[in-house]
Each structure stands twice: as structure tokens, then as C-alpha cells.
User: Which sequence fits this backbone?
């Protein structure tokens, strides 16, 4: 695959104003996206991939800035999402910090970053922002939409808003709505950011002291723990000690797992925006696929037209296989073709990123 570059389109025509679920309107707005493969003559081979919370549009290959794709093992020639057959699209979500309009973008009304003036958004708003991109690319019908974790929820939001636009949906390691514990973890992460003195109420972009690095690092540490199973943590770290293998009798880093989490936190604040973390986790919390059917999941699936592939991971305690099975059962009860596969994956939630089999064959078969 040749070097990838990120493309940008700003929707600034009079009819492009984006009406948001919160009652506000966003205009103009920019979508950052990348594509792989070639769109066929009848424009019927396009697949739209939605990324997870901290992801971006760079799914596969080597970016012109040297980055490798976050899903190289699944997207490319001959892989599950075969770029010799399909035209793959992935865009950075609205509210993100990788090129699409978010809180760090310039507010045309002030000439300064939006900061806390950026409106609170939903996953449905993220979908609405990407619909004009498909129109720009000349695509009115997708071969499939796919998402994992938050991306799986965005995929559900897509078929809810545009049921006629695809016949296939792949949902991986997700749920129809955040459960109370997941909402709680997100709240703790947001509080860690907002309690950092450098957050400054969200107005930190021009601060000489920089962004709230420590708060965002803590939020990432909290989130990262939910992505890995208890067993995987034990196998990788156990109670092993750092340094000379002795307790320091301080409140510093004694255990290897403490060092690992600190490292993950320090990496994260170098590539992600703290306000984006607030906006995106809030959007995840607000999502409920069955909200407009009074909590009736079967009725919610009855309003869609696609067939579904649900892939869960047996050690995932953030979005358990039981939650994925509940969606599959509801979809079938609604008369939709749906299948759920529970994959053995000791790592837990993040397994969808690193485990190639058996999901490759399951996806390839579903896309045929």
C-alpha cells in the first residue's frame, strides 16, 4: 500500500449547517478522512469504518507522517477488509482532535479555539457529519458499515439514521448503550481532567503552561484498565516489582503495572486532546440505541433494514458477550438476519485491535 495522507473537506455551503441533537447548529465544520482501494464503476463496493474513542482516520498502511495504521492486521490487500475488492473510508469523528472539527478547532465567530464553547455532541451528530462526506464521494449505498467499541455504537447510530444506506453492519466489542459502570468510569476520567488546574475550564489552548497533561494521563490510565481483562493483567504483570525488586516505602512507582499505566498515560497526552476526551466520552454515555422505542431493543432493530454480524470477546468485561448476544437476539426477534460469535480472546476488550483470527474469516464470509 502506498503512503497514506489525510484528506480534509470543510462543509461551508449555506445548506451544510449541521443541526445537533443538543439544539445548537454547527457551521462550518471540517471532516478529516482517508480512503483505501478503488471505488468500482457502480459505486457499490464502499465500506465505512468508524473508529474507537481514541482512534482516527488512519486505519491502515503507513501515513506520510510515518505513523502506522491502527488496524493494519485487518485492512489491506487480501485481508478481512480487502482493499483489492473494497473501497474503504474512515473519517475522524466530529469532536475529535485528528483533523475533524472539535473543541480545539478555530471558532469562526471569535478567531480562537472553541474550547468549552464547542457544543456538546452525540454519536448521532457524528454520523450526521459524515453523511455529506459520502455524498461528496458519490456514494449513496454502502456495502457495509463497521465499528468496534465506540465505533460499534456509531455504526448502530448510522443504520438508525440512514437504514436504506447499507445492507450489512459489523458491530464488534460494543453495546446498545453504556451500562452504569461504564458511565461511571467515563465520569471519573472526565473529573480527573477537569480537576487538573491546567484545564482552566477548557480554555487551555493558548496557556503558556500547556494542556492538562496530568489529568488526561489519569483519565487514560482509568480507561486503559477497562480495556484489558483481569487475567491478562495478572499474566503480564502479576505483583512484580520495579527496579531492584524491593518495596520503596514511598508513594512512587513500586509495581510493574504502575509503571505500565504511567507510561500509557504519558503517551496519550502527547497525541490526544483533553477536551476531545470530555466531549467524546459524554457522547458515548448519551447513546442509547433503544431510546426512541422506550427501551424496547427489538422495536429499535425493527426500524432498521440491515443484517448484522456481532463479534464479542469472552474476556471483555467492558462490553460483555452477554450484551452483544442481547442485541443479536433482539435483531432476530425484529426479523433481521443477525449472528453473534463469541471469540476466545484472553486480552479482553482490546482484542479486536490485535487478534486476527477467527474474526478475519467471520468478517470475510459476512462481506461476501
Assistant:
Amino acid at each position: 500500500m502506498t503512503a497514506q495522507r489525510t484528506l480534509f473537506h470543510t462543509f461551508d455551503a449555506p445548506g451544510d449547517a449541521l443541526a445537533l441533537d443538543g439544539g445548537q447548529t454547527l457551521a462550518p465544520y471540517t471532516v478529516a478522512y482517508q480512503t483505501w482501494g478503488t471505488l468500482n464503476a457502480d459505486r457499490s463496493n464502499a465500506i465505512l469504518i468508524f473508529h474507537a474513542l481514541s482512534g482516527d482516520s488512519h486505519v491502515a498502511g503507513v501515513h506520510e507522517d510515518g505513523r502506522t495504521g491502527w488496524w493494519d492486521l485487518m485492512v489491506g490487500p487480501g485481508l478481512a477488509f480487502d482493499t483489492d475488492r473494497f473501497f474503504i473510508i474512515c473519517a475522524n469523528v466530529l469532536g475529535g482532535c485528528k483533523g475533524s472539527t472539535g473543541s480545539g478547532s478555530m471558532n469562526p465567530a471569535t478567531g480562537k479555539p472553541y474550547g468549552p464553547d464547542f457544543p456538546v455532541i452525540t454519536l448521532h451528530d457524528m454520523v450526521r457529519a459524515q453523511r455529506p462526506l459520502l455524498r461528496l464521494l458519490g456514494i449513496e449505498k454502502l456495502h457495509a458499515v463497521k465499528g468496534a467499541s465506540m465505533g460499534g455504537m456509531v455504526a448502530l447510530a448510522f443504520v438508525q439514521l440512514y437504514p436504506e444506506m447499507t445492507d450489512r453492519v459489523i458491530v464488534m466489542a460494543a453495546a446498545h448503550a453504556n451500562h452504569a459502570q461504564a458511565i461511571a468510569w467515563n465520569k471519573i476520567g472526565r473529573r480527573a481532567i477537569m480537576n487538573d488546574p491546567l484545564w482552566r475550564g477548557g480554555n487551555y489552548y493558548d496557556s503558556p503552561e500547556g494542556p492538562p497533561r496530568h489529568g488526561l494521563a489519569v483519565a487514560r490510565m482509568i480507561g486503559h484498565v477497562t480495556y484489558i481483562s483481569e487475567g491478562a493483567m495478572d499474566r503480564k504483570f502479576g505483583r512484580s516489582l520495579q527496579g531492584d525488586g524491593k518495596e520503596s516505602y514511598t508513594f512512587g512507582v513500586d509495581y510493574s503495572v504502575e509503571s505500565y499505566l504511567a507510561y500509557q498515560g504519558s503517551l496519550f497526552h502527547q497525541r490526544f486532546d483533553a477536551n476531545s476526551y470530555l466531549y467524546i466520552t459524554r457522547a458515548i454515555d448519551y447513546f442509547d440505541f433503544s431510546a426512541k422505542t422506550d427501551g424496547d431493543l427489538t422495536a429499535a432493530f425493527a426500524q432498521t433494514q440491515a443484517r448484522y454480524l456481532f463479534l464479542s470477546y469472552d474476556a471483555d468485561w467492558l462490553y460483555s458477550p452477554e450484551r452483544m448476544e442481547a442485541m443479536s437476539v433482539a435483531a432476530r426477534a425484529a426479523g433481521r438476519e443477525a449472528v453473534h460469535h463469541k471469540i476466545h480472546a484472553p486480552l479482553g476488550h482490546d482484542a479486536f485491535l490485535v487478534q486476527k483470527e477467527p474474526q478475519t474469516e467471520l468478517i470475510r464470509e459476512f462481506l461476501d
The mean pLDDT is 97. The CA atoms of residues 27 and 174 lie 31 Å apart. The first strand starts at residue 7 and ends at 11.
